[in-house]
Amino acid sequence: MRAPGTDLALVGAEEIARLLTPAAAAEAVAGVLRDGFDPESDPPRVNLPVAAGKLLLMPAASGAYAGVKIAGVAPANPARGLPRITGSYLLLDGATLLPLALLDGAALTTLRTPAVSAVALAHLAAPEAARLVLFGAGPQAYGHLRAALAVRELKDVTVVARSSEAVEALVAYARTLGVEARGGAPDDVRDADLVICCTTAREPLFDGRLVADGATVVAVGSHEPDARETDSALVRRSAVYVESRAAALREAGDLLIPLTEGAIGPGQVVGTLAELVNGRAAVPPDRPRLFKSVGMAWEDLAVAAAWHRARCNPTGQRDIVR
Fold first, then answer.
1. Which residue segments constitute the domains of the chain, with CATH numbers given?
2. pLDDT by residue (tens digit) across 145-176?
3. Angle at 195 between CA 222 and CA 213, to 5 degrees
4. Contact 233, 259 (CB under 8 A)
5. Could you tell me the superkingdom of the organism this chain comes from (predicted)?
6. Do the strands 99-104 and 289-292 form a parallel or antiparallel pair, or are they unpaired?
7. What is the sign of the dihedral through the CA atoms of 94, 100, 105 and 108?
8. Tens digit of each residue's pLDDT (9 = 90 or more) over 266-275
């Protein structure tokens, strides 16, 4: 291991995954919230438009660590055979701000976002929830499938995406995990216990009136005020939970668009992730539960710090979030 401040090699996806399981990443997120961190204090992300798309700057500091993610979103990259999300994460020592590690930013995001969703699912989804409809078939969809399996015993997965080839690949992968899986259509949400949306869609993916009372919906695909994956009908029916009220009302089109329409009021958000983790948020049984994530810098730091602790002390990581 290099000393702080010396040359850093980029830590890639395989090395991150080797030391940190999806369940351990989720436990890292939940642990930060149990320890009293307030996500409302997290600094807003800096969003800079550039010719290729946009650059995102996400700094955070808490306890023994600090860090910053520089991410790029390049919509034209997939057509070039390149990832849509790029970037890196610089983990720093909290006391000295000397560098500790440089992580692949896209790989970290692919682990971090499902980890946040897993924490939400652990608290919102019915214990017997077993039927998942998964929108999307990219890296986040794979990550969310693994994360959902870390907190619920799924029996049936339906994949909905634009590319039939991508659907077939994800269905095949789900079967290797011991889950019955198939391709499907948006209306399949009517039979789902869980719905996870991790797409680049800018318009609603399904009719929110079809979602059953008591079902849980997680939407993670957008952090832009004019883009959404869920419709106003679902948001109006649902008990809504977010990572941070301030961040959601700044960035979450899934909520801001219904607010602008007058379909909901600010009180539609009944709880935050921290309130769920610490037992301070009610979960009504007779309404859908919607968790809307925009992604926050403290989450990247929580997972990156957990990875670093696991690297320094492999036997010390915790591995459950139940």
1. 10-109+298-314 (3.30.1780.10), 113-297 (3.40.50.720)
2. 999 999 999 999 999 999 999 999 999 999 99
3. 120
4. no
5. Bacteria
6. unpaired
7. negative
8. 788 999 999 9
